C-alpha cells in the first residue's frame, strides 16, 4: 500500500498494528543520490572508519524519498508467512535543503518512481531528537510572540477595507450559528493583510486571525472565542496538532524501534544511516559514536546480502543484487507460502512488482530472508519463525560492506575485523599516469590489481603467491626504477600514519593490540563468503559460535561470482585478523601473557 | 510546445527558425530552490553587490529544471503579433549535483509541474564554455585510452563463454549481411564482461565492443569494420555525436544569444543568472565581472516587472506578480491581437494555461511586455514592433531588484544607483531580542521600520520627517540608554568600512565620487516606481532621456500597493543618488563643478 499525506492519518493505526504483530520488519529506502564528490567514491581498500565517513556523508547530503516497510509474521498452523507492505513517499520537513543527483533520479523515474506523487503528497518527518527539542521549546515559547500594534491608515481604500472588515466581524460575533469568517486572501494586497494582523487583531481580543490555504487558495480565517482562555487553549491544541503532523512518518519509525522487532534489509548500510539521520538523530562524527547510537536505539539487524554471499546460496546464485537474488531464490530454494495479512493490500509472490519501489524491495527482502533462513534450518523450519533460527546469530547486527577488498561487514555492536594489508603497495603518481604506466612500473609481478583512489594515488595488490617479505624485496627494485614524481611504499607505512591520527581519541592499547593480532587466512573465493566461519563476537549470546573460529583456507579456487569479477581478475586469499575488543572484557591473549609472566617470575 | 529528449532532435530546426524570425524572445525559468541558507535571504538593505552575491549563490546551488521561450514577431499588415512558445524540461549533464528545496518542488508540483517527465526525459545541457573545453580535450585525447590486455581464464564456465563468443564473432565476420552482434548483458557477470573488453577485444582488431542500453536493457554490441581506419572514423563520429547530444538545450540558447534578439523576462534576475551559469559560463565572483560577461555575451534585456512598477500601470495594477499583471493588463489595457505562429503549437490569450509552467510564463511575459509598450506608444503603436519603441530605452538592460528599500534595479551595462543611507540605524543586539525590545529602545521616534538581517543584527529606518542631523541627535540619546550587549550606530560607519573592503580591486575614485553625489528625493508611493524619471545612462544612445531628470517628490501620499504594504507600515521617501560611471565618460556634475571653479577663480 502506498502511503502519502492523502491517506496517512487513516492508515497509521493499521500500520502500527502490523508492526506490533510482526516477527520482523523488512525495510528498504530510495535516495536522491549516493555520492556527492568524487573523493567520496567507495574504494575497495577503505578502512571501515573511512567507509562509515563516506556513507555518513551520503546520508547527510541526500534525501530519503521513499521508505518501504514489510511486516512479516509466521503462521505456524499454515506453515506460511503473512505480510503487510507499505511504501511511504517522504518529503521531509518544510525547507529541507538536500542534494539530488540527476542521474539517480533519472534511474528511479525510469523504474517507475512517481515524483509527482512525492512532491505533491510526500510525508513530512522530524527526527525523534528534533521532536523532543521542539517540545522543549514549547515550555518557554509564547503562543503569540508579540502583541499587535495598529498602523496608521491614511489611504481611502484601506480605510474602507478596515470598516467593512470590522462590520463583518461584528456580525460574526453576534451570530451564534457561526464560529468562523473566511476572507478571500489570494488577491489581498500585503498592506491590507497587515491591517488585519495589526489593527483588527488589536481591536478584538477574542478572535484569532490566521492564514488558511485550501485547494491552493490563500484565504484568511477569523475565528471567534468565548474567552481569552478558550482562545489560548485553541492555540495550544493547534500547536500540538501541527507538531504531530510534522512528526509524520517518524510515528511509524518510532513504533518500529520501540517494538524491538528485528530489522531486515538488503545491502542496508545506507538505508540504516539515512534512517537514523532523518528520523532518530544526526549521525555522529565517528564510527565508535555511531555504534553507540545504534546500541541505544536500534533492534537487532540482519542484512540479506551477507546471507546471500555465504554458502550455500553464493554457489548457485553468483549475483546478489536484490531483484536477481529474489527470483533465483524463488526458483531454486522453494520459498514457503506467503499470504497477505488480512485487511492489508500488499504484494504477492505471483503478483510481481516494480523493483526499486521501496515497498516491493522491502517485500522481496523479507521473502529472500525467510527463504534463505528456511533453507539453513532444513527440515526444522516449520517449528518456528525463521527469526528464531540459530543460524542467524552469526549475521546479527552486521551490515554488508559493499565493494571492499577485505572487510566484508561492519559490525554494529562490537569491534570490526582488522585487516593485514602489509603486502599492498601504495603509489603516489603524477595525474597523467594511467594503467599502462602502473603496469610498466610493476612489470616484474603479474598479475597485479590496481585500485585507483584518485588521479594521483593508487594501490597495487600483488599476486597471492608473493608474501610479505617478497613484497619488501620487490619494493626495493621498484623504488630503484621509480621515475621522478612517483613514490611507492607498502601499506603498513601509510596505515601506521593514518592510525596515529585516527586513534587520537581512541582507547589506549590499540597500537599494542596489533602485535596480539590473531590472523585468519581466508579465501575470498565465492562472494565475501564463508562468513559463518569467520565470525567475531555476536551480540546475541545464545547460540554464539566460538569467538575464534578455525582458519579456513580453501586454496586456490578461481573467483567466479559477480564480486570476484568486478573486484579483479585473479583470486587472492585475504588475510583477516582480529583485535580484542576495546571495552576491557578479558581476552585470551593478555590472559595467556599474564600467566606466562606469572610463571616465569615465580617458578 | 513541450520539448524533451523525446522530440528535441525533431523540433530543434523549427525552434531555431522561430528565434531567427522573432522581434524579441520572452523567457522564464523554474528552479529547484531559491535560497539555501538563512543568511542568503534577501534583505531590503542589501547593497547591489550583496544582492548579486546572493542571487549568484542561488544560481550555483540550485537546478534550472524548466525553461520557457516565447518568440514574438510583429505582423504589420495584421496589426498583430505572432508567437511560438516552447517549454523545455531540463535535466542537465550526467552527475550534476545540485540542491533542491522540497518546499519549492512541492510548490511546482502543486502547480502541475510534471517531475516524472523531467527526470525521465529532461534535456541535457552543457555551458558554451564546457563545450569548448571538451572540444579542446579531443585534440590530445586518444579515442581508446589503453590497449586491452587479456586476463587469465581458469574457470570452466568462463572458458566456455570465451569460446562461444569467439564463434559468434567469427560468424559475424563472415556474414556480409550483418554489421553488429548484440549480446544480452543484463545478467552477464562482471568477470565475463571483463573477458569481452580484455580478451576478445585484444584478439580481434577490427571490431568494437561497447555497452548499449535499449529499453532499460543492458546489452553489449559488437560491431565489425573493414579496416582499423574505418573503426577509428566511427569512434570519432561517435564522440562528436555524443558531445552534440550533451550540448542539448544549449543549442537553443546559443542561437538566441547569437541572434542578438532582445530578451524579455519578468523579475528576471534569477532567470538570467541561472541561464548564464548553466549555459554560458560559471558566474564570476563580483558584480563588475558579471557585467562584463553580460556585455560580452547577452543582447539587450527588458524586465517587465520594472515597466509594471512604473506609471501608468502601477496606478491601476498594484500587484505586479506575473499572473495577476497578465490578467489585469489584458482586462484594462487592451492588448493587440495575438496569433499563433504558423506551424507551431502554442498558447493563446483565450486558451489559458498553467502559471509557473515556464512556457506559459514566458508567453504571459511577452504579452505583458507588448501590451505595456503598446500603451506607452499610444496611437503610434501600429507603426512598428514594440521592440523599437522609444519608451523602452529607459528600461534597457535593467533587472528588477526585488524587495529592495532603495535600489529598484540592477544596471547590467553601467554603474548602479548609489544610495544615501546615512539616516539608517544599525543595531547589534542579543539573539533573544524581539520587535518589542527594538521599539523600546527607539521609543522616541515613531513609526520606525525594522529590517532584521540576522537574530543579532538589524536596521532601523526612522520616520521620514527626521533628517540626517536629527538622526545624529537621536543616536546620542539612544546610545546613552542602550542596554549592555547592544550597539547602535548610523549606516554611514558600517558602509564606509564595507566599502573599503569591497573596493580593494575597484577602480579608484569611488570614495571621492560619494562627495559628488547627486541626490533625488523620491516617493516610493506606487511601486518602486517613476523609474522613467529616475534613469541613469542607457546603453541604447538613441532616445535616451536626459541623464539628470528632475527631482520628483510627490509628497506624503500613503503607499498602497503590494510592495509598500509588504515593505513596511508607513511611507518614506527614498533618497536616491547617483555616481558618474567609472568608465570615464564626461558627466554633468564634474563639468558644472569645473565651470564653477573656473569662473570663481577667473572672474
UniProtKB/TrEMBL annotation, chains A, B:
<dbReference type="InterPro" id="IPR036397">
    <property type="entry name" value="RNaseH_sf"/>
</dbReference>
<protein>
    <recommendedName>
        <fullName>Poly(A)-specific ribonuclease PARN</fullName>
    </recommendedName>
</protein>
<dbReference type="GO" id="GO:0000175">
    <property type="term" value="F:3'-5'-RNA exonuclease activity"/>
</dbReference>
<dbReference type="InterPro" id="IPR001374">
    <property type="entry name" value="R3H_dom"/>
</dbReference>
<feature type="domain" description="R3H">
    <location>
        <begin position="159"/>
        <end position="226"/>
    </location>
</feature>
<dbReference type="InterPro" id="IPR012337">
    <property type="entry name" value="RNaseH-like_sf"/>
</dbReference>
<dbReference type="InterPro" id="IPR012677">
    <property type="entry name" value="Nucleotide-bd_a/b_plait_sf"/>
</dbReference>
<dbReference type="InterPro" id="IPR051181">
    <property type="entry name" value="CAF1_poly(A)_ribonucleases"/>
</dbReference>
<comment type="similarity">
    <text>Belongs to the CAF1 family.</text>
</comment>
<dbReference type="InterPro" id="IPR036867">
    <property type="entry name" value="R3H_dom_sf"/>
</dbReference>
<dbReference type="InterPro" id="IPR006941">
    <property type="entry name" value="RNase_CAF1"/>
</dbReference>
<dbReference type="Pfam" id="PF04857">
    <property type="entry name" value="CAF1"/>
</dbReference>
<dbReference type="GO" id="GO:0003723">
    <property type="term" value="F:RNA binding"/>
</dbReference>
Amino acid at each position: 500500500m502506498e502511503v502519502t499525506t492523502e491517506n496517512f492519518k487513516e492508515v497509521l493505526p493499521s500500520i502500527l498494528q502490523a508492526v506490533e504483530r510482526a516477527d520482523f520488519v523488512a525495510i528498504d529506502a530510495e535516495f536522491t543520490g549516493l555520492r556527492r564528490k568524487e573523493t567520496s567514491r567507495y574504494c575497495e581498500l577503505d578502512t571501515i572508519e573511512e567507509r562509515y565517513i563516506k556513507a555518513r556523508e551520503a546520508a547527510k547530503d541526500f534525501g530519503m524519498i521513499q521508505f518501504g516497510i514489510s511486516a512479516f509474521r509466521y503462521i505456524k498452523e499454515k506453515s506460511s508467512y503473512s505480510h503487510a507492505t507499505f511504501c511511504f513517499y517522504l518529503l521531509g520537513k518544510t525547507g529541507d535543503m538536500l542534494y539530488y543527483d540527476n542521474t539517480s533520479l533519472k534511474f528511479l523515474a525510469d523504474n517507475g518512481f512517481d515524483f509527482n506523487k512525492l512532491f505533491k503528497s510526500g510525508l513530512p518527518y522530524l527526527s525523534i531528537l528534533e521532536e523532543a527539542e521542539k517540545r522543549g521549546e514549547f515550555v518557554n515559547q509564547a503562543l503569540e510572540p508579540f502583541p499587535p500594534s495598529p498602523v496608521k491608515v491614511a489611504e481611502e481604500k484601506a480605510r474602507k477595507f478596515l470598516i467593512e472588515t470590522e462590520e463583518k466581524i461584528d456580525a460574526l460575533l453576534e451570530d451564534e450559528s457561526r464560529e468562523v469568517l473566511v476572507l478571500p486572501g489570494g488577491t489581498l494586497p500585503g498592506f491590507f493583510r497587515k491591517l488585519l494582523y495589526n489593527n483588527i487583531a488589536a481591536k478584538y481580543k477574542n478572535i484569532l486571525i490566521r492564514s488558511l490555504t485550501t485547494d491552493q487558495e490563500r484565504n484568511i480565517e477569523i475565528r471567534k472565542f468565548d474567552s481569552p482562555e478558550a482562545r489560548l487553549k485553541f492555540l495550544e491544541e493547534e500547536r500540538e496538532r501541527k507538531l504531530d503532523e510534522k512528526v509524520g512518518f517518524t510515528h511509524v519509525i518510532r513504533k518500529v524501534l520501540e517494538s524491538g522487532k528485528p530489522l531486515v534489509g538488503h545491502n542496508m548500510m545506507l538505508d540504516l544511516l539515512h534512517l537514523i539521520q532523518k528520523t532518530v538523530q544526526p549521525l555522529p562524527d565517528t564510527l565508535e559514536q555511531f555504534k553507540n547510537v545504534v546500541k541505544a536505539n536500534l533492534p537487532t539487524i540482519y542484512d540479506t546480502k551477507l546471507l546471500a554471499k555465504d554458502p550455500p546460496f553464493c554457489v548457485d546464485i553468483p549475483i546478489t543484487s536484490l531483484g536477481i537474488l529474489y527470483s533465483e531464490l524463488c526458483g531454486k530454494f522453494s520459498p514457503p507460502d506467503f499470504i497477505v495479512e488480512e485487511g492489508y493490500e500488499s504484494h504477492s509472490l505471483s503478483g510481481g512488482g516494480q523493483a526499486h519501489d521501496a515497498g516491493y524491495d522491502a517485500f522481496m527482502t523479507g521473502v529472500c530472508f525467510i527463504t534463505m533462513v528456511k533453507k539453513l534450518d532444513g527440515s526444522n523450519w516449520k517449528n518456528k519463525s525463521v527469526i528464531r533460527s540459530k543460524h542467524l546469530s552469526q549475521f546479527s547486527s552486521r551490515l554488508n560492506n559493499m565493494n571492499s577488498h577485505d572487510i566484508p561487514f561492519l559490525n554494529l555492536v562490537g569491534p570490526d575485523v582488522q585487516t593485514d594489508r602489509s603486502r599492498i603497495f601504495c603509489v603516489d603518481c603524477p595525474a597523467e599516469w594511467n594503467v599502462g604506466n602502473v603496469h610498466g612500473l610493476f612489470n616484474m609481478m603479474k598479475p597485479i590489481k590496481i585500485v585507483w583512489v584518485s588521479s594521483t594515488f593508487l594501490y597495487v595488490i600483488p599476486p597471492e603467491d608473493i608474501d610479505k617479505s617478497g613484497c619488501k624485496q620487490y619494493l626495493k627494485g621498484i623504488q630503484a626504477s621509480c621515475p621522478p614524481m612517483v613514490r611507492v611504499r607498502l601499506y603498513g607505512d601509510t596505515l601506521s600514519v593514518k592510525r596515529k591520527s585516527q586513534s587520537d581519541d581512541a582507547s589506549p592499547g590499540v597500537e599494542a593490540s596489533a602485535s596480539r593480532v590473531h590472523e585468519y587466512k581466508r579465501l575470498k573465493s565465492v562472494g565475501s563468503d564463508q562468513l559463518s566461519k569467520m565470525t567475531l563476537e555476536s551480540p546475541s549470546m545464545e547460540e554464539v559460535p566460538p569467538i575464534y573460529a578455525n582458519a579456513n583456507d580453501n586454496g586456490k579456487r578461481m573467483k567466479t561470482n559477480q564480486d570476484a569479477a568486478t573486484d579483479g581478475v585473479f583470486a587472492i586469499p585475504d588475510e583477516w585478523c582480529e583485535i580484542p575488543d576495546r571495552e576491557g572484557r578479558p581476552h585470551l591473549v593478555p590472559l595467556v601473557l599474564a600467566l606466562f609472566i606469572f610463571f616465569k617470575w615465580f617458578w
